[in-house]
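Throughout our pipeline, every protein is held as a single compact record rather than as scattered files. Nothing more is needed to write down the fold, since each code stands for a local backbone conformation. The record that follows is passed on verbatim for readers who wish to inspect the format.
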Amino acid sequence: MIQLDNVTKRYPGGQEALSGLSLSVDKGEMVFVTGHSGAGKSTLLRLIALIERPTAGEVIVDNQNTRRVKRRKIPAYRRQIGMVFQDHKLLYDRPVFDNVALPLIIAGLSHRDAGRRVRAALDQLGLLNKEKQRPQTLSAGEQQRVGIARAIVTRPKLLIADEPTGNLDPDLSLEVMRIFRRFNEVGVTLLIASHDISLIDRLGCRRIALDGGKLQQEVEPWQ
């Protein structure tokens, strides 16, 4: 599903966020990327989402080489990927329903079809009774679930998440990870950046540790 071959990402000024990184994630896997702040976790996800492009090397996602995806094709490319962020990136002047519907409206779905999908996603995440509320009236855990609903409403093959539990307490963090596990069980591939090693170890998934933009360690799943 994801293949990185000798990938380097160098920013202006010469800083290398990733250096000669090679790794792979199989279709249907749930994999965590760990490492201290500045290790390259977020950069890795940004390359996969085509928010940025590598300086050198190849990033291949679902048999597509991102180097060959033209700028005008990037929106179509991103429709196969759901993205979850630590800070939710919700629109606080819109109700929950509109926040979740946004990627479907951008993709051109009719309001009727979008409505069905949005309510199905909200129902999966226990938020159906919150669809008319503004995000700022929700708890931190509920806001994060709205972000997840928006990420999965397009029915992506791949879900990537950048520190999705960074602002949550341990119980809410475990709840979010269990939600991700449910998506994985129905075939969604997940790549999650997190620094919470104790939580990751409870889930028994493969863990890739980065240090200074390089692969430091791989820990295989125990399940």
Summary: The two ends are 21 Å apart (CA to CA). Residues 80 and 155 are 8 Å apart (CA to CA). The chain has a mean pLDDT of 90. The chain has two domains: 1-80+157-223, 91-155.
